[in-house]
Amino acid sequence: MAAITPYATNHEGLGELDSRLVEVNSLPWIPTRYKGIEMKILLEDKETGMITALFRWQPNSRLPLHEHTAIEQTYVLEGSIEDEAGEVTAGNYIWRPAGSRHEARSRNGALILSFFLRPNKFFDDGDGWLSDKDGGENTKVH
Description:
about 0% helix, 8-stranded antiparallel sheet, Jelly Rolls
């Protein structure tokens, strides 16, 4: 199966069609290459680029200009995130169509659940959420 939950220790030995309970509290927060933004990868399919992840944004963190190459969906659990279209507060949901571009920021911090069908395209000096120093197969994660 191509879809996995990296760092999940309770998935070994499961059959291809077995459900995967993800013990979210046991997953590590992984620093992204963007200061103040960390992620927990809940589901990842490296073949398609699909990912579901929790993102923790510290106050005054910022995500530079990027393009959504497929529909992106985000539900804000705590705090808020914002861009030029406005602010998305806790308990609210936003989705962005493929081809949309924006910069995102969080003035007071946020915890969000995001779903990506394919990786974002970033316009800074890198590719993906994680830097090469994070190593391994996770260097190109969204």
